[in-house]
Design a protein that fits this description.
Length: 222
Amino acid sequence: MLEQLKSEVIRIGRQAQREGLCKHKAGNFSMRDKETGYIVVTPSGVDRELLTVDDMIVIDMNANVIENITGLRPSSEVLMHIAIYEARPDVWNIVHTHSKYATVFATLNRPIPPFINEMMAINNKNHTIPVAPYGRAGTPQLAENVASTLKDADSILMSAHGAVAVDADSIDNAYLKACYIEELAEVYHHILAINGGKEAPIMPLEELQKWAYPSQIKFPNN
């Protein structure tokens, strides 16, 4: 069931592990099927390099396990995935990572302000990366806090936990946003370190919002 979605989720999970966004079985990933509404999610506590298609879990929006061929349990944070899909009907792909620099700012409960042009890539309403309030891992409270924070953002930090990125079109795009979260957090950290803890100059929101592809570039048949 939903073999293609299972393969895509495994691929992204392995990429996140290989690129250092998730280590030691941390993090979780999911996609929602547009036809059935079912969610394909990574299982709990399994090294993603060892995952097979049969290990992937299919669950519905009421947390009923529909398929777990090898008997594995869905990620303990699947309630968070369900809450996000409920709060954001436009979202079909979720990536939750524990990348280092993002987790540092998440632990400090410190949002990352719009200090650089790349903030446009995270697709957040005010170009800031906010921090969802703390909730114990796997609990309905965590699910509620994260889903609420994602209502106006595609890319967020989770207090004392990690980061979440979502996308309407593809899990690759969600993963790219997770990569941007980590890169922006790392650059911001270095700015604070070099600048004696002082904030970087903040870019005006209108400057970020004015970006457009250069009209001077001409294509054939235009």
